[in-house]
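User: Predict the complex.
Assistant: Input components as received:
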Amino acid sequence: MDMYGELILEHSKRPVASGLRDGHAGEAYHVNTTCGDEVTVRVHLSQTAGADSVLAPGDVTLTDLSYDATGCSISMAATSMLAQEAIGESVADSLDVYRGVQAMLTSRGQDAGDVEEIGDAVALAGVSKYPARVKCALLGWSAYLDALARAGVDISSVKSSIKTP
Amino acid sequence: MSLAFSVGESAQIRADFPILARTVRDEKPLVYLDSGATSQKPRVVLDAEREFYTQHNAAVHRGAHQLAEEATEAFEDARATIAAFLGGNSDEIVFTKNGTEAINLIAYAVSNAAFPGAVDGADLAAAARLSVGPGDEIVVTEMEHHANLVPWQELARRTGATLKWIAIDEEGRLGAPESAISDRTKILAITHVSNVVGTRNDLAPYVAAAKANNAIVVVDACQSVPHLDVTDLTVADSGIDFVIFTGHKVLGPSGIGVLWGRTELLAAMPPFLTGGSMIEVVKMEGSTYAPPPQRFEAGVPVAAQAVGLAAAVRYLQGWGMDRVHAHDEALTAYALEQMATRPWLKVLGPRDAAERVGSVAFVVEGVHPHDVGQILDDDGIAVRTGHHCAWPLHRALGVPSSTRASFGIYTTTDEIDAMMASLDRVVEIFGVNS
């Protein structure tokens, strides 16, 4: 079937930046309750938040994203693609990628995704035709956003859309 | 492959289930191998519900008009049919919303029994058996569906009792009774058949160990009732006190479950849900309650569903539960045989079909069950993927989740062949080394 393109299989077999590393600013563990898939995501940032201040996403660089995941090829590939797109970039840019990925995944096949905007994640476009699988593709993303929030990054610009379908 | 039903009979059975004629995913014939999650419904069940609504609908046990009389009679006839199917009496049958509610009913009746004056005039010996508190133990098994685990965890939390469990081995068989059952055991809650690995538990030694301490024994029969004659569970000397099952897995409608219980225990149990229908006399200062089963059926009962479930049971009885079971065993044997020829496929649970009922769960080496299920779905094949509401069991077997094919009276070996061909395609797509 066409949903499992080469990119998905490649990312799921050889995930980018896989493994948990120390020196993180925030960590989150998320689980897909329907299948038991699990992911722990750590965010490593260019600066730390003060005790009672939040970091603006545009002011912070994601120096590393480390993670430990067990799951289906869709959730593994999606998390790997997230790492590939986000590491070394401004956190604000990764939130833009999230918005693009989320819009594509919830479009019921109407939005093919823009490779300039979301990179390899366009390979996940086929997932949007299967509502039960959208959660799989967003598992790593939801843990990432949560980890950012725990690290003191202001994610209010995407917060209203975090709820996975 | 010799099955219990002839080719002609099998075709007749399939024609009784309208949904089996539809196609899915671009005109592919539906191959429904998810009956362990919910069964499909024969036309006689749909007709029985429709006839109830179009001809007899009224609130049962209320009103004296003709429709109320007819509705009440239909509801109580359904109770008698279910009672006979289980080998019990009508006053031992309580209708609930589903199997989960039936188990919660028992667990809440037990904790409500701790309050003084819970049931006036209750038999003291029966009431003593219902009393659970600190120092007492509730025993479950590691293969339980969450529905027969979480209510007992909660009962332990509410009462201060301790939850113990019987572990399973790597082939999905239960450990020895004495590994968890002791003289502190007050309740044993155990499944007849595993909803994942399909193991048919030999209940006798576990029941005997529990009975040695006069413990209450609750059997979850959700997965066995669709395939087996279970009247041995309710005979006078079975040692089993409660049997529960759900209607929708046994060709019946959704929205109905069944609790069978021993008369003296039901009589000593305080209610779980309270309100209309379950009362005797209501005053502003307090109320007294109706005898069982009405005491446990608060609110307007699920009449149409009961009538539909009775029709489902009669449908199975029409073919004969011995043949229904033989059919399931032959399908299981066939599936296991086909799977054994695929070295990349690992079956969970016992390898002998005689030890199993209703389903075969498995893992495709290196491929996540969601991905397996996705390819199968693309070929029109419906299976269950995930932890199947039995997370601890999967943890015990060392797998995060699995794929499960489960069967019904309408399942054929052709459907198992279709699944195997699709599984071969999974291996091609994901490049698993065989």
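The mean pLDDT of chain A is 91.
Let me know if you want any component modeled separately.
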